[in-house]
């Protein structure tokens, strides 16, 4: 399931950089990659008025390919590729600890993110959690208990 999620994150990032990070709930990176891509698109692509003035979709695509220079193509492609690679590695858990922040409470044994104690599953990765029984005292703890006399 982790590989499927990684492929989905990569595919979404190719369509729109930042969308793959939204899938894995990495909101800061979602904003950064989407903002970078949209800023580069505004800087390097022709204005929306020029594209809309073209008669058909084919004419508008020809306009875009003629107007964008090699540097613009490189920058837009680099952002898309980097976003896809980053979303893939982040969804797989690389670098270690990238998916988990220092949590005060219990964490999911599968994804490592903080758990909601009221739920019986992880709301991040949907892993079902087994209810934890109160731990029985160990032999050493039983030996330390005072023995009560029955009177």
Automatic annotation (TrEMBL):
The keyword Transmembrane helix applies. The keyword Transmembrane applies. It holds the Pfam family DUF7575. The chain crosses the membrane at residues 71-89. Residues 130-151 are annotated as: Disordered. This is Zinc ribbon domain-containing protein. Keywords: Membrane, Transmembrane, Transmembrane helix. Residues 132-142 have a biased composition (Acidic residues). Residues 104-130 form the DUF7575 domain. It comes from Natrarchaeobius halalkaliphilus.
């Amino acid at each position: 399931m982790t590989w499927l999620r990684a492929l989905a994150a990569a595919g979404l990032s190719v369509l729109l950089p930042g969308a793959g990070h939204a899938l894995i709930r990495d909101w800061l990176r979602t904003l950064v990659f989407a903002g970078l891509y949209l800023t580069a698109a505004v800087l390097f692509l022709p204005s929306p008025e020029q594209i809309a003035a073209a008669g058909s979709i084919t004419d508008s695509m020809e306009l875009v390919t003629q107007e964008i220079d090699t540097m613009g193509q490189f920058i837009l492609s680099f952002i898309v590729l980097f976003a896809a690679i980053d979303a893939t590695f982040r969804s797989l858990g690389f670098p270690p600890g990238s998916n988990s922040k220092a949590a005060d409470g219990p964490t999911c044994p599968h994804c490592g993110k903080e758990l909601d104690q009221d739920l019986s599953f992880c709301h991040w990765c949907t892993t079902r959690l087994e209810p934890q029984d109160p731990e029985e005292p160990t032999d050493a703890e039983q030996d330390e208990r005072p023995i009560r006399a029955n009177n």
